[in-house]
Amino acid sequence: MRRHVTTPEAYRFWLRLADNLAQVEGRGVRIDKGYLDGAITQVTADIRALEAALQAEPDFRVWRRRFGERTRLGAYDQVAAVVYGDLGFKSELVTEKKGRAAATAANLEAVAAACPMVRHFLEAAKLRKALDTYLVGIRREMVQHADGLWYVHPSYNLNSVLTFRSSCERPNYQNQPKRNPRIAEIVRRCYVPRPGRQLGEDDYGQIEVRVPVPITGDATLRAYVCDPTKDMHYDMACQLFRLERPQVSKALRNIVKGAYVFATFYGSYYGLTAKDLWEDVDNLDGKPVRLEGSDVTVRQHLAALGIAELGDPDDPRPGTWAAHVRAVDEDFWGRRFRRYADWKREWYAAYLAEGGFTFPTGFAVRAPGLDKKQVCNAPIQGSGFHLLGWALCEINERLVKRRMRSMVIGEIHDCINFDLHPAERDDVFDLAQRVMVERIREFAPWLDVPLVAEPEAAPVDASWHDLRALKAAPDGRFVPSDMGKWEAAFGPWANQRPTESQGAA
DNA sequence: TGAACGAGCCC
DNA sequence: GTACGCGCTCGTTCA
Q: What confidence score (pLDDT) does residue A135 get?
C-alpha cells in the first residue's frame, strides 16, 4: 500500500511561495481614497433612497405591524417572515439548519415581480453588500505610505485551505465583485496603480479543465483543450437544448458553462443542474434568453419540442426537463467523459483503501472522512493553483532581481496581478508568457497539455475596473485584443507610454 | 462576548 | 445510487 507523504520539493516550493507572497503583501495595492470616500457617501445615499421607497409601499405596513420597533430594513429573516408568513407567497427554498423559508435572492426574485417592496429590498441588499463588505472593508484596512498615498495590504494564507490553494483576507482581494457590472464598477474603481503606471493581469485560461487531462487521462477532455475549434460549452448547450451551434448565443453558452458543465464536473447532478438551467434561461438579469438571431425564447423552443415543464427532480417523469437533463448526465459520464468518470471511481476507492492521496505537485493529504467530491476535486484545484504559484515565484523573483519598477501586487488562484511601469509593460507580459506557458513544464513535467496565458491591462492611471484583454502582435508587443473598442473608450493606444519624466526602461 | 446561522461575493 | 468543490466577511440571533 502506498504511503502518502508530501515531497521535500513540495515543502520547498511552499516556503518559496510564502516568501514571494510576503513581498506581495508588503507592497500592497494602491487605493483611490478620494473616490472611495465619495463612493461610500453615494452608495449610502442610494441605500437610503431605496429604503424610503420600500417604506412607501403598502406592503410595508405588514412588515411594520409584525416587527414594530425591531424593524430592520436590511434583515433577510424579517423580509422572509413578512413575504412568506404574512403576504401569502409560497417559498421554493428553505434554510439549511432551521428549515425556514429562505430569503435568498433566488427565492425572493420570484416574488419581486409581484411585490415592489421586495424589489426594493433586493436592490438595496446588493448595495449594502458593496458598502459593508467591500467599500467600508477597504477603508478599514487602508494605510498611508511615505509617498502620502493610501494602500491596502491583503494578507495571503497558505495554511487554511484543504486543497492547498491560498486564501486571502483583510481585505479579501480574491472575491472583489466582478460579475454584476454596476457593483463591479463601484468597488473596482477603488483599486488604482501607483502614479503614472497601469494595472495588469495575466490569467491561466481554463486551468481547471486542462489540469484534469493528465490526471484522469480523458481523451475527450484532451481534445477539447488541444483543438481550438472545439468548445465543450457550446457542445453541451447544443445537446441540452437540442440546438445547432449557430443558434447558441454567448449568453446561453455562459449559462451552460456555469450552471451545467462546471457544476457537473464538481460533483453536482441533474436534480440540481436541471433546476438552475431552467431558471437561468428564463431570467438573465430579469429577461428570458432567446435563440441567437431569433425572437424565440429558449423556454418557447423547449416547449415546441414537447418539454414544457421542469418536473420533479426526485422523480422525473418522461417529457420533463428534469428527465431530459438526467439523460444528458448519463451521456456525459457514461459516454462523453467516461474515462474521467472511471478515474473518479478509482481515485476515491484508492483514497478509502490508503487513507490519503497525493497531488501530481507532490502535496499529500492524509485525512479520514473526506467525501468523494472533496477527494476528486482537491488534486485538480490544488494543482492548478500550484502552477500559478510557481509562475508567480519565477516572475516576481525575476522582476526584483532585474530591479524593474513593475511589480506583482496580487494573486487570485489562476491569475497574477501587476502594477506596471508602462515602459516595461511588454517585457513583463513577455516574461509572464514564457514562464506561464513554456517554463512551467520545469515545475510540472507531468503536464502534457498546452496552457494559455491571457494578459489584460488598464490604461495608465486607470482603475482595476478598466482592465481589457490584450494579445501579442506580430512584432511581439502586446496590444488590445479589440483596438477599436479600446480607443473608443480610452483614446489612442499610443498614449499608453511612459511620460517624459519617467523616461525609458 | 462568541458561536451559529444565513446570506452573498470570488475562482 | 448519486445529491455543487474551495474560501472570507457581513448582520442577526441566541446562549
A: 95
pLDDT of residue A109: 85
Alpha-carbon distance of A126 to A133, in angstroms, equals 11
**Would the Cβ of A162 be found within 7 angstroms of any atom in strand B?**
no
Question: For strand C, is any atom closer than 7 Å to the CB of A77?
Answer: yes
Supply the pLDDT for residue A505: 43
Task: Give CA–CA dist A124/A195, Å, rounded.
Answer: 34
Which chain B positions have some atom within 7 A of a protein CB? 4-11
Grouping H, G, I as helix, E, B as strand and the rest as coil, residue A51 is helix
Question: Rounded CA gap, A69 and A88, in Å?
Answer: 23
Residue from A226, A284, A299, A220 nearest A250 by CA:
A284
Q: Quote the pTM value.
A: 0.93
Specify whether the CB–CB gap between A348 and A335 falls below 8 A. no
Q: What residue has cell string 429562505?
A: A102
Give CA–CA dist A319/A477, Å, rounded. 54
Q: Give the position of cell 438551467.
A: A277
- Contact criterion met (CB below 8 Å) for A411 and A436: no
| Grid coordinates given for A279 | 431558471
Alpha-carbon distance of A129 to A145, in angstroms, equals 28
A482 vs A3, higher pLDDT:
A482
Mean pLDDT in residue range A465-486: 96
pLDDT score of A283 = 78
